[in-house]
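Final report, Chapter 2: Outcomes

The project's central promise was a pipeline that accepts a single protein chain and returns its three-dimensional structure in a standardized token representation, suitable for archiving and comparison. That pipeline is now operational. To close this chapter, we reproduce one record exactly as it appears in the project archive, with the input sequence first and the structure output second.
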Amino acid sequence: MSVRLAGRAAQPAPVVGDAPVLLGIDFGGTKMAVGVADGEGRLLACERVPTHAEQGAPQALDRALDLAAKLLGEVGGPVAAAGIASPGVVRSDGIDLAPNVPGWDRLRLADAVRDRFGVPAVAVDNDLNAAALAELRFGALRDADPGLVVGLGTGVAAALTVRGSVLAGHHGAAGEIGYAVAGGPWPGTMLELDFSGRALDRLADELGVPGTAAGLAAAAERPGPARDALTARVDELARHLVTCCLLLDPQRVVLVGGVAGSELIRGLLVQRLAAVLPYRPDVVLSGFADDAALLGAVVLAREAVPAPR
């Protein structure tokens, strides 16, 4: 089993003038990305800004919409549809399971975008589901079925793809492995408190390692306390990914998110999966870098455009 880089990041396309455009917004616990694309989903302009999660949800939403207005003004053209990628389980009247930004559960993202821009069609989905959609349409899962997308960023989650679709689950919560039971005694803690960008930031601080999660991964390249502590956290994550693989039997596993960028962490995960799985999936790093969820939001917008009569 090996890790390889899959897919290619989208390149900006020429400005299209007055032709209809698509708006994509990716809300994350650490950063937000906004993109404007042509009708085929090719990015014309995109920009990222920090979320400032500690300042609450309303300011994050307002700043993202302000950025969207700026980019739409630069590109020009009417907005045919918008797609939004958000943490948590999105409902029409709020958002569940999104604890990283205070007040996020009370937002109505689709309504906010409709009210601000008068967009006729707005689609909203979980951010990792959106990333999985991008991988399905033009990324690492175009030729793989089933697929498993694992998000290792501010939090930790998974998305399952079967026969060209992202599996939502009964409540829309399929893949919320951050809530998996970890450690002991029962009920122990949540996996996200053991392994996630924020969990590794805290671990680095406890060990006195500068540079948060990235600094911890760099320090763990050498034998010592940092490597021992990080390996124990990777072991916990690997146990849950093994279960996911046994349940789904994926042809390919795609890793996305900032933490997935660590070659050491990817290598440790691959070793652990290879050691115990009877059928080993191909494990790849997303070729979209930090853009997978944003590109997925654009796909959501493209697929929300009403069909011509």
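Archive annotation: DSSP finds nine helices and 15 strands in the chain.
This record, like all others produced under the grant, will remain available to the consortium after the project formally closes.
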